[in-house]
Every structure is written in C-alpha cells, then in structure tokens.
Amino acid sequence: MGHIVKVTKPRPVNLDLQTIRFPITAIASIVHRVSGVITFFSVAILLWLLSLSLSSPSGFEAAADIVDSFFAKFILWGILTALAYHIVGGIRHLLMDMKYFEELESGNMSAKVAFGITAVLSVLAWGLVW
Ligand code: HEM
C-alpha cells in the first residue's frame, strides 16, 4: 500500500536564477581559477614584450611605445591585479591545505580578507603602471 508523506514546504519547481546568490567562498574560488588562466596567458604577452624590448634599440623603442598607450597600461594593470589575486587567493588555498580557515565563518572571513588585500594591491598596481 502507498505511504502518504505530508509535504509542509512546497518543493522547488524550477531554479529561479534571479534569487540564487553565490556564497563569497564560491566567488573567491571561481575568481581564483579565472585569475590563474589570465596569469597563464599574461606570461606569453609579457615574454613577447620582453623579447621585443631586448631585440634591438628600435625594438626597445617599439616596446616602450606600446607600454606607453592607455590601452596597454590598462591591460598591464589588469594582469597585475589578476596576479595579485591569484597569489593572495593561492596563499589562502595553501593555508586551507594546512587546515586553517576551513569552517564556514572563517572561510567567509578569509575570502573577504583576500578580496580586501587584492583591492589594496590593485590600487598600488595602478600607481605603478601610471
Ligand atoms: C605564472 C604564474 C602562475 C600561473 C600561470 C598559475 C595558474 C594557475 C591555474 C591555471 C590554476 C588552476 C586553477 C583551477 O583549476 O581552479 C592554479 C591553481 C593554483 N595556484 Fe597558480 N598560477 C601561477 C602562480 C601561482 C602563485 C605565485 C601561487 C602562490 C600562491 C599560486 C597558487 C596556486 C594554488 C594554491 C592553486 C590551487 C588552487 C586550488 O586548489 O583550487 N599560483 N594556478
């Protein structure tokens, strides 16, 4: 015979994407992966720029001209910000590997701290590039 279960809470019919909020730890994790991929491609760009600058005196001028443009400076600032987050988030990951910040509260806190430190480093990178 069938067994009747009383459902007190309505079951979700579909996922309402407008009401789903990612926890800050999930955002920290996604951004860490994205910053790692950006850092990976940055290595190619920066090595190309370095080799151009070392190729000849006119190559150096060409590289200096590239770095002088607003667009290039903006990209360099973005690269430095991604690297900053990747290192700060990476250190947070390594600390978690050592069993720190593994609880919900401390994990949320360390994610916020990582974003805060990155914001400061990003402002410093802006000053360095300009
Ligand atoms: C050229 C430099 C670097 C590149 C291209 C790079 C790239 C990446 C990529 C693509 C991932 C995989 C992310 C994922 O699958 O979620 C990763 C993970 C990681 N990176 Fe880097 N990385 C670099 C430097 C660093 C540095 C300096 C640190 C120092 C803290 C670091 C710490 C980590 C850690 C701890 C992970 C693993 C995170 C996890 O367990 O999800 N990385 N990196």
UniProtKB/TrEMBL annotation:
Membrane keyword on record: yes
Binding-site positions, heme: H86
Subcellular location: Cell inner membrane
Subunit (UniProt): Part of an enzyme complex containing four subunits: a flavoprotein, an iron-sulfur protein, plus two membrane-anchoring proteins, SdhC and SdhD. The complex can form homotrimers.
UniProt function note: Membrane-anchoring subunit of succinate dehydrogenase (SDH).
Family: Belongs to the cytochrome b560 family.
Protein name, entry field: Succinate dehydrogenase cytochrome b556 subunit
Organism expressing this protein natively: Enterovibrio norvegicus FF-454
Taxonomic lineage of the native organism: Bacteria, Pseudomonadati, Pseudomonadota, Gammaproteobacteria, Vibrionales
